[in-house]
Amino acid sequence: MNVQKTTRFLILAGYAFCLLQIWLPHYYLTGDGPCHLYNAQILHDLWAGKNTAFYGRFFEVVGKPNPNWMTHVLLASLLFVFKGVVAEKILLSGYVLLFVSGFSKLLKKLDSSTNFWPLVVFVFVYHYVLAKGFYNFSFSMALLFWMIYAWLMVLDQRSVGKVVGFFVLVCLAFFAHPVAFAFGGVCCAALSIFYFVAGNDSRQDPGEANEAHNVGRLWMVLKNLLLLFICLLPCSILLITFAAGEAHEGSIVLHLAKNRILEFADFNCLVNLCSHEVILVRLIWFLLVGFIIYALILRFRKGLHWQRYDGLSLGMLFALFLYLFFPDKLFGGSLFAIRVQYLWGLFMVSCLGYILPAGKLKNGAGLLFFIAFIGLSIPRMICMATASDGVKEINSAGQFIKPNSVVLPLDFSPGGLDKKGNVITDRNWLFCHAWQYMGVDKPLIILDNYEANTGYFPLVWKDATNPYHHLCTNGAMEGQPPHATINDYRNTSGVTIDYILLWCYQDKWLSDEPFRKLHKEIMAGYQLVYKSESGRVVLYARMPSLAVNESPLQESGIK
C-alpha cells in the first residue's frame, strides 16, 4: 500500500464528507446558528444604511472591540455577496477547511514521517459546542492549531514574515474566542521553554554542552519569550479590559468538580445530536486513552527525558486542570467544562502525534478513527435532514408575517419533534432559535435574540425596548414552558408584538400557571392566521377584535 497516496486520498474524501454534511440539507441547523445569522443580517443592513430607523429603535452597535466578534463580522460581510443560508454554509465550510488543514499541518510538523495519523482530525471537526451553534469558539479552535504551528516555525527560524504571520493569527484567535487566545499563549510559552530544555533547537548544535552554550540557549529562550509577550500584549490588554467589564459575574472560585471525573469518561464533547452517537464516541475515547497510556509507557521505558514538543503535553495537563477545577460559567460564557474537555481531546491527539512512534499501530489507529468519523457522520446526516425539514416548516409561516413586524416565538420543544411526534435531537437543543432565519429574509424584530442581551457580541438591545428586561426576566421566554407578559412589555417599552409563533405546542402546558397567564393574554388579543400541515407550527396575529372568551390555542386543535 502506498501510504502517502492513500493518506492524500482519504484526507480529500474526509474533506468531501465534512462539506457534504453542511451542503446536503437545505438548512444546516445549529442551536445558535440562526441567531448568529440574524444578527449578522441586522449588522449588514446597518452598514448598508437599510432599515436603520426600524432596527435603531431596538439595537445599537457595540463601540469597543470584544472577543466573539469574528463570525458576525464575517457573516455580515458575506451577506453583501450571498444570501443568508448560503452565507452561513460558506462560513461553516471555511471553518472545516481551516480546522482540518491547520490540525493536519501541525500533526505533520510533530511527526514528519508518512502515516495515517492525521486522519484522526476528522473525528473532531463536528463537536457538541459547534452543534450548539458556538461558531466563534469553533473557529478559535481551528485558529489555535495555526497559531501553535506558526510559533513553532518562529522557534525553528525566526524571520519578520513569520513573526508578523504569528501576530495576525494571535489577533484572529482573540476576536474569535478568548479561550483559544489564552490557551494558545500558554502553550506557545511552554513550547519556547521546552525547545531550550530538550536541547533540540535547530539553530544550535545539540552535541555541544559547554557552559557558554547553555547560557546562549538560555538567552535564546528569554528572547523568544519576550517576543511572544510582545505579540500577545495588545490583545491581552483587550482581554483584561473585557474581563473587567464582566466582573459582575463574580470572582472565579476554584474547587474540584467531582462529577466531572465521571463525565470525563463519557467524552460528551463529541456527542453532537442524538444518542445513536454515544457508543462510537465512547469507543473513540477508550482508544485515545489506551493509546496515550501505551505511548507514555514506551517513552518512560527509555528513561526520563524531555522532548522539544513537550509544551503540548503541558497544554494537555493544563486543560485537564481547567476542566476539573474551573466553574462552568466564566466571564458570562457557558459550557466552559465541555469546551475544555474538547480542548483536552485535541491536545491528547497532538501529544500522540509526536510521542507515539511511527509504524503499523499508528497507521492502524489513524484508519480506525477515520472509520469512526464515517460511522458518526451517518446518523448525524439523517438527523440533520429531519431537522432541516422542521426549519422549512417553521419558515413556511414567514409568508404571513409582514416586514417591519415584531415577533414573539414560543418554543415548546427545543430538541424538535418530527411529523410523527418523535424527538429529533435528544442530546442537543437545535430548535431554540430556528425561527430567526425568518429575520434574514425580511426586516423583523424577533424577541428571543439572546445574543443582543449578552454585551459581548456586536449588537446589543437598547434598554428601553430590551425584552429580557421588560417582557420577561432571566430569559423566561426561552423556558420550558416559556413565560412572558405581553401587556407589560407594551406598557413599559411602547412596543406592540405583532405576531406570536408557536413551535410544537401541546395543551399539557396549560397546567403551568405562569404560562396560563401568557395564554390568556394571547387569547384576548390574537387570532390564528396560519397552521402548518403537521400542526407543529402555529402563527397568531394581533387582532384587537378577537373575542375574549375563545382560545386560539384550543381552536388550533394542537395536542
Describe the structure.
Helices cover 56% and strands 6% of the residues. The chain has 559 residues and is mostly helical. The protein has 2 domains: 279 residues, no CATH class; 169 residues, no CATH class. The strands form 2 sheets. It has a 5-stranded mixed sheet. The longest helix has 36 residues. The protein is globular.
List keywords for this structure.
single chain; 559 residues; mainly alpha; 2 domains; five-stranded mixed β-sheet; two-stranded antiparallel sheet; 7 strands; globular; disordered C terminus
User: How many DSSP-defined strands?
Assistant: 7
State mean pLDDT (0 to 100 scale). Answer: 89
Strand residue percentage: 5-15%
Taking Cα atoms only, what radius of gyration do you get, to the nearest Å?
26 Å
Mass-distribution shape: globular
End-to-end distance, in Å? 59 Å
Measured as a percent range, the helix fraction is: 55-70%
Report the total helices. Answer: 20
Question: What does this entry show, briefly?
Answer:
The protein is mostly helical. It is 56% helix and 6% strand. It folds into two domains: 3-250 and 307-314 and 361-383, no CATH class; 387-555, no CATH class.
